[in-house]
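in:
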């Protein structure tokens, strides 16, 4: 069987030149003082590969999985965005490190990985398992390039079957029944999420410092697309005030009340509790739970706003805090006023709860 190899590359590292080439899923690297010596070495390696006399010197270097994950993060840190870093840290620390953290990378087999992924299907969704498989593939491919393993064990792992659930949008009476069935802190959580359209990550990052109860305004300082501001509707204000007198830190902390963060072993405990509360409220309200996720409430928020008469596209885009595409130049010129945004949220509450909210703006009072 003919060998497969790349062109090879020479990169300057300080005062030395690092030559690198990949042949048959194995990466060969060597440092030289002169660039001409590096290119000469690459030529020799290619010639030996063609003649079939290429020798592998030394043994495969050993590295723990936890150290490999740290190296890969440092390697990608300059290219990754903040959200990608949180995604990587969250899944690595909560799931992958407990399973493979203290294992030597070269000793991890395809059978072990397949057994791990199949076992996770009993606890999380197939989509989450697919994310685990994606991360493992990236890590083992990096280990192959660095010479820690000859071949990635992910090549024999069966791809996780992801069932695409329908993009569910709740009707007004379904959303009202669900919110009325929520209890305790979950009632405030889902009321704020459903009537503001905040993303799940933005909800858990929501801080009391961002809530201006006098001006009735929310300052979303750590949003997906930077800093965003939006009005605070009457029901959202009531839901936030119902959480108690605490006015520091996060509104929905990542641990139970009465516990210190150090006693919480699982960083996703609060997320698990909210997901369990959502399923309980759906069952109690009689709403079909098929396809209902955290993002369903954001999708419902945008859809109900768009279907409400008197609310323009510019208002919907401003409240959902979506960025304009390169081809949608007009959207960049749409900047609704604060009064327009408040009016839209009041109409949304009226549509969901079938109650009329009358508000007088300063210009109407003066008139």
């Amino acid at each position: 069987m003919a060998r497969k190899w790349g062109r090879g590359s020479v990169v300057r590292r300080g005062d030395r030149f690092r030559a690198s080439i990949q042949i048959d899923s194995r990466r060969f690297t060597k440092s030289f003082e002169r660039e001409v010596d590096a290119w000469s070495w690459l030529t020799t390696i290619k010639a030996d590969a063609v003649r079939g006399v290429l020798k592998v010197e030394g043994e495969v270097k050993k590295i723990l999985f936890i150290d490999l994950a740290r190296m890969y993060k440092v390697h990608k840190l300059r290219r990754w965005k903040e959200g990608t870093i949180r995604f990587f840290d969250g899944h690595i620390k909560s799931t992958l490190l407990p399973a493979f953290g203290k294992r030597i990378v070269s000793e991890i087999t395809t059978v072990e990985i397949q057994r791990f992924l199949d076992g996770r299907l009993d606890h999380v969704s197939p989509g989450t398992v697919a994310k685990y498989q994606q991360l493992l593939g990236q890590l083992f491919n990096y280990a192959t390039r660095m010479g820690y393993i000859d071949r990635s064990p992910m090549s024999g792992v069966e791809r996780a079957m992801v069932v695409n659930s329908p993009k569910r949008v709740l009707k007004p009476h379904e959303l009202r029944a669900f919110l009325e069935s929520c209890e305790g802190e979950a009632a405030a959580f889902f009321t704020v999420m459903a009537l503001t359209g905040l993303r799940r990550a933005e909800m858990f990052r929501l801080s009391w410092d961002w809530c201006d109860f006098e001006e009735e305004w929310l300052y979303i300082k750590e949003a997906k697309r930077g800093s965003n501001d939006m009005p605070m509707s009457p029901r959202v204000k009531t839901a936030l005030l119902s959480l108690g007198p605490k006015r520091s830190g996060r509104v929905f902390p990542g641990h139970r009340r009465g516990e210190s963060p150090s006693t919480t072993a699982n960083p996703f405990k609060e997320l698990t509790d909210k997901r369990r509360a959502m399923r309980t409220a759906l069952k109690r309200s009689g709403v079909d739970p098929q396809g209902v996720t955290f993002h369903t409430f954001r999708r419902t928020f945008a859809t109900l706003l768009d279907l409400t008469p008197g609310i323009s596209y510019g208002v919907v885009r401003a409240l959902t805090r979506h960025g304009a595409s390169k081809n949608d130049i007009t959207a960049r010129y749409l900047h609704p006023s604060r009064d327009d945004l408040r009016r839209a949220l009041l109409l949304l509450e009226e549509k969901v709860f079938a109650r009329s909210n009358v508000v007088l703006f300063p210009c109407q009072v003066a008139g």
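note: The chain has 14 helices and six strands.
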